[in-house]
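note to self: dont lose this again. the chain is below, predicted strucutre after it. 96 aa total, dont forget to put it in the shared folder this time
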Amino acid sequence: MAEEKQYNHPQYKNDREAVNKLMGAEPTDFNLAELARLRIRYDGFPGAQDIRKDLDRAMADWGLNETALFEKTQAIHAQDEAIYQPGRTKKGEDWS
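---
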């Protein structure tokens, strides 16, 4: 069976920095939103196994599964539409 080709995500460097900040951090609203955003970005992405592994570890450390994470972040976004307002994130945040 052929091995699946692994790709580098164009946002890998910035995302790696964001994941490093999540590791060992507290599950604040912003950190939960970041974790969910990055899990969505890398879901099914053929590469960046290290990022996916660390995202899984952060989620487990916070006692969450994906369903609980997304429920929490939906509630966060419903209450705080400006969770990603200027000053909270880097200029030019790219969600793609």
